[in-house]
Amino acid sequence: MSPTPRAPTSIEELTVLLEDDHKVKVAVDGVLRGKFMSKDKFLSAASSDGFGFCSVIFGWDIHDTVYSRELLISNRANGYRDLLAIIDLSTYRRIPWEHNVPFFLVSFLDPDTKEPICADPRGVMKQVVERAGSKGWQCYAGCEYEYFQFKETPDSLAAKKFTNLQPLTSGMHGYSLLRTQLNNDYFHDLFDESFKFGVPLEGHHTETGPGVYETALAYTTASRMADNAILFKYLAKSIGMKHGVVPSFMAKPWGNLPGCSGHIHVSLRDENGKSIFAVPDSELRTGRADAAYPDTKFLSQEGEWFLAGVLDGLPDVMPMLVPTINGYKRLVGGEAFWAPNAVTYGYDSRAASVRIISPPSVPPAATRLEVRVPGADMNPYFALSAVFALGFRGIEKKLKLPGPPVGQLTLEDKQDGKVRMLPQSLESATARMMRPNSIAREESVFGEDFVEHFGGTRQHEVRLWNEAVTNWEVERYLELA
User: Is the pTM of the predicted complex or chain greater than 0.85?
Assistant: First the structure.
């Protein structure tokens, strides 16, 4: 079990908890920005209606450039007024590598209506989980990250202009027991500090590629998993700084090597903790007689509907799974890189967009779906929210699976249009998500406000890319065009 102390449930408990502290750290947003607060200020905010936090965090990109169009939450017209930041006491932990300072996550409300704002990643996740709870469902999830490591510092990255970077190790060495010995302290610190930080891991090993690790976070509730996934990135980058290492969660840092995935595992449980995706014990030997295909015979009817919902809406929520320009360069299809680019599924298939993990390969209680589309650059709140929202829609509408599993498809099926392809760029993905009849716009999925705001942030990213002049262009056209 993780040594994370029990979260306080009252202001009185919180005051006692922080008795020996004089400052507290809080974090906000999917990029995990934040600040230190004095203990007095923090306790005052925790015991009242929260505290003001500048809305510009939802009005600028990861490099603090203001978005190029007016968005719903943060805009120039109101002068980037404060939002109401609400401290989530249940997220309490301490940062072991930072003087053991107390740490909390916050969520945001509109200061006028006191309602959650549509752009807050934690708020979006909370609404999806509450929707499940109203039906007697509990959302569970796991995340896996692949990420490159470089023997660099933030200063050396800038000095080298992000070129000719030195990998942490050389060669292709997936699951190597030797390569971890070359950076033993760093490798173990990632695992051990995660444990202390309340982000327990299930697996941690090298992956194929120069300096690549893969880390699987321990399966838990979806809300806690989204928090843990964003905090693991923060932890890895912080621990990396101590060791002169820069871990990169960029989806495709090398053109000729596999990219970095951010696979997510999802399942539903009932109020008693029993898997809703699992078939009854009476069907464990032969599987469901009414399954759509043999691949789904050990998936319950609700699980099959959930899967159909994910597949039906997948192309319409792609920016929530793959939010960057670079992320689409990872989705090349085929089995060489195991990065799917079509709406496909299959039993235990790593070539599919959605992998069914069920008996006989796992016990019934472990029945789940692995969505293999996201890269390591995903925002886990949005990615998990998208998968669950689509799955709920599938159950509610009792959707049928869109064609046979991946094992029964051919290359010609893709070429003939029998298999739906996923958007191949952030520009096309954003246009699809923002079109008038997008599934994402349905009120039971994400609604108009969210799509307009989040889609606007992705249009900004596309505009910056379209205006950029890359090294490739200069090398190709400067002399010979």
Answer: yes
